[in-house]
Specification:
Rossmann fold, 20% helix, 14 strands, 9-stranded mixed sheet, 3-stranded antiparallel sheet
Length: 249
């Protein structure tokens, strides 16, 4: 099954990705899946590495009419442009504000937004100003790397483990299981605290291909804490078949 099918995308969606464990790969895989003639624009409210300009041309916000004209040209050519506010020295695209995401709605059928950063780690504890989710988001995808299961709660495996420890009551160094992940997601100060009203929430457990025992995925049905979460998707953003299992609420 494809990611767009598992997400059950409607028309004119703004899909935001938060958490850890492969958000960028998941976002670009979804961008590839959405067929032409639908227009897809990719952006971020944080920072992302600049993708291949031949496939994903970069458009920097300036005058609104010029941006619309530039986006229209790329979209007409079947490309999926990336919108940012600037290009940084480390080849990263600097993000736009949550409010500016709404300006793109007239240009695209689907807007995909990386709304969080995790330094490449599969799990993250959020500071008070994170994640940076656009208020116009219609689908919020919370991403967790399956490879975190069985690892220890520390800086090697978790971005800001001290925050995860504080929110879940688990000590630093404890072994991470599905229960800890569910507690972190369901906590009032967890990943969903900035979820826009009315947004459909989907939990994507990524990198299932990295689990030594694929049957471990069966233990993840406990990750439906019930707080807004519509479904849990088990899969791999870079896999030949990216979606393995869909667990409905």
């Amino acid at each position: 099954m494809r990611i767009c099918e598992a997400l059950d995308l409607k028309e004119n969606e703004i899909v935001s990705f938060v958490g850890g464990g492969g958000k960028t790969s998941l976002m670009f895989r979804l961008a590839e899946e959405i067929p032409l003639p639908y227009n897809v624009v990719i952006t971020t409210t944080t920072k992302i590495y600049r993708p291949s300009p031949e496939k994903y041309p970069l458009v920097l916000l300036g005058k609104e009419d010029q941006v619309e004209k530039e986006l229209a040209g790329y979209l007409k050519s079947g490309l999926r442009p990336v919108v940012g506010s600037g290009l940084l020295e480390n080849n990263k695209v600097n993000g736009i504000s949550p409010g500016q995401v709404s300006l793109l709605q007239g240009c695209a059928d689907y807007i995909l937004v990386e709304a969080d950063g995790s330094k490449g780690l599969p799990l993250k504890g959020h500071l008070d100003y994170e994640p940076v989710i656009p208020g116009a988001t219609t689908v919020l995808v919370v991403v967790v790397g399956a490879d975190i299961l069985g690892k220890t709660l520390d800086k090697k495996h978790v971005h800001r483990p001290e925050i995860v420890s504080q929110l879940t009551g688990r000590e630093i160094g404890t072994v991470i299981d599905a229960g800890l992940i569910a507690e972190l997601i369901a906590h009032p100060r967890g990943m969903l605290r900035e979820c826009p009203p009315g947004a459909r929430v989907v939990l994507f457990i990524n990198k299932m291909d990295l689990l030594p025992n694929p049957d471990e995925g069966c233990n993840l049905d406990g990750l439906l804490p019930g707080k807004n979460i519509e479904k849990v998707i088990l899969g791999s953003a870079i896999g030949e078949e990216p979606v393995r299992v869909v667990l409905e609420q």
